[in-house]
Amino acid sequence: MKTRITELFGIEHPIIQGGMHFVGLAELASAVSNAGGLGIITALTQGTPEKLAKEIARCREMTDKPFGVNVTFLPSLTPPDYPGLFKVIIESGIKAVETAGNNPAEWLPMLKEADIKVIHKCTSVRHALKAERIGCDAVSVDGFECGGHPGEDDVTNFILLPRAAEELEIPFVSSGGMADGRSLVASLAMGAEGMNMGTRFIATEEAPVHANVKQALVNATELDTRLIMRGLRNTERVLTNAGVERLIEKEKALGADLKFEDILPEVAGIYPRVMQEGEVDAGAWSCGMVAGLIHDVPTVKALIDRIMAEADEIITQRLADFQSA
Ligand SMILES: Cc1cc2nc3c(=O)[nH]c(=O)nc-3n(C[C@H](O)[C@H](O)[C@H](O)COP(=O)(O)O)c2cc1C
Questions:
Q1: In sequence order, what E strands does 163-273 have?
Q2: Which residue from 254, 267, 259 is spatially nearest to 233, judged by alpha carbons?
Q3: Is 87 within the bounds of a domain?
Q4: What three-state secondary structure class fits 137?
Q5: How far apart are CA 325 and CA 318, in angstroms?
Q6: DSSP element (H, E) containing 142
Q7: Is residue 104 part of a domain?
Q8: Each residue's pLDDT tens digit in the chain (325 positions)?
Q9: Is the dihedral of CA 157, 128, 13, 319 positive or negative?
């Protein structure tokens, strides 16, 4: 399939694997790229420029296809070494960067200079337009369904994607709630030129996470996510579990007095415990409503091939039959 997104990133299928903390490692990124999508390594999971350089090198050993790096800008008292991370990205010849959180204006000149294509993840049309204005090459439009941070507007993709299509000149991919060929065709119908998946890619053979995490996603339904940290204007969609219910009780009890420190036990240091040790109830970890559409743990290639075959079938048969009837 050819779209402006496949052309921009030099990939075969318009499918991107969004950056994911403690999931977006070389194993998953290379598997996605080898299957014809765009795999993404998550810079902040590596933490330091040195470790990121090693992870990029490791990924390169596993694929000769293009892959990208996600750089997430988080409010932090001790910010990561962003200049060092970008230096490594440029020096290691990466050609695609996914940014998220604050807009990447500060870093665009050096990325452009190095001929790196930037796709910025946005949860609203106004942020997408801002990304376009500052010179991003594409945006990933993240609806309210998404795993991770859906922003504070609560607009789902059935509205957000066509709204983005009404306003944007640059190409965009849908993100949030995407799982299969139906998602891809619907995204294309609404004006996107590809789709980004997070949660769905965790439940694959190659995702370098504990089997308990994959099983938790297969077991979960679309009713099993919760929104946390709304009061802190840092909303996150997570899979419900004992730790998350504890957190929500604190939010209810403290109301407007809630501070980040109050919920530290449920949010700090949770990812390695969940993703590596398999303690899926340890606390809050991002998960999309799309968990309800995840019923198996295929290889990444089987998943992507299935998506493309299903999309083809929908376009050439189901929709064509409606039209000719
Ligand atoms: C476990 C997990 C960790 C994530 N970590 C990050 C991250 O570090 N940076 C980021 O930009 N997005 C992160 N995301 C968001 C994904 O990149 C993607 O935008 C989102 O999962 C799309 O929604 P979906 O889960 O419904 O596919 C994460 C998502 C999940 C499920």
A1: 172-175, 195-197, 225-228, 236-239
A2: 259
A3: yes
A4: coil
A5: 11
A6: strand 138-142
A7: yes
A8: 999 999 999 999 999 999 999 999 999 999 999 999 999 999 999 999 999 999 999 999 999 999 999 999 987 778 999 999 999 999 999 999 999 999 999 999 999 999 999 999 999 999 999 999 999 999 999 999 999 999 999 999 999 999 999 999 999 999 999 999 999 999 999 999 999 999 999 999 999 999 999 999 999 999 999 999 999 999 999 999 999 999 999 999 999 999 999 999 999 999 999 999 999 999 999 999 999 999 999 999 999 999 999 999 999 999 999 999 8
A9: positive
To test the pocket of ligand 1, the residue of 102, 146, 174, 267 to mutate (highest count of ligand atoms within 8 Å of its CB) is 146
Of all protein residues, whose CA lies closest to atom 20 belonging to ligand 1? Answer: 198
Distances in whole angstroms, Cα of residue 123 to Cα of each of 100, 101, 240, 265:
10, 10, 22, 27
- Cα gap 268→251, rounded to integer Å: 16
Domains in the chain, number: 1
Q: What is the DSSP letter of 69?
A: E
Whether the CB of 290 sits within 6 Å of ligand 1: yes
Substitution site in 173, 286, 294 for ligand 1 pocket (most atoms within 8 Å of beta carbon) = 286
Q: Which helix (H) or strand (E) holds 117?
A: strand 117-122
User: Which residues have C-beta within 8 Å of that of residue 27, sequence separation ≥ 6?
Assistant: 62, 206, 207, 208
Residue 235 included in any domain:
no
**236 contact partners, CB below 8 Å, separation of at least 6:** 148, 149, 227, 228, 229, 284, 286
Residue 138 lies in domain: 4-207
CATH number of the domain that residue 176 is part of = 3.20.20.70
On whether residue 239 sits in a domain, the answer given is: no
pTM of the predicted model, to two decimals? 0.98
